[in-house]
Design brief:
This is tRNA threonylcarbamoyladenosine biosynthesis protein TsaE. This protein is α/β, with parallel strands linked by helices. The protein has helices at 9-22, 39-50, 92-97, 144-157; strands spanning 2-6, 28-33, 64-67, 74-78, 101-105, 118-125, 135-142. Strand 4 (74-78), helix 3 (92-97) and strand 5 form a beta-alpha-beta unit. It is globular, with a radius of gyration of 14 Å.
Length: 159
Amino acid sequence: MTKLEINSAEDMQKLGASLAKTAEPHDLLLLNGDLGAGKTTMTQGLGRELGIHRPVKSPTFTIVREYREAKMPLFHMDFYRLEDNDLSSIDLEGYLAEPGLVVIEWPQLVMDDLPDKYLQLTITRVDDSWDSTKRLIKFDVHGKRSEKWLEDALTEFKK
């Protein structure tokens, strides 16, 4: 399992930008981490690199935010408040079929409904201080495409 230490919100956004630069249509990115870990911060970097000019916000209360104006559509989902893991109001299969990038926060609530090929990141705080920006990211690849995506993104990040 690959790991990376991030020391600032800027680096978290840079990692997001690196993932966006190397993403392809139909890629699936799963983000795990406690509240405030940096999942949305990373997605903001993704959005900026994809050419989204409006604010990329957490979809905690809306469940899904669509950004179709980007170089490649970005579908940002947050299942933290999904009631009883009920996806009936969300066309998850439809989003996954679109030629865009799907980013899911709190994916553990819907793992049975997801394809078996994805890149998963688990973000944890390095220390207990609430205002610390140091994070450890563990990458878990599922499928050859995700393996290549991670390799390319980490190469881009280190530039």
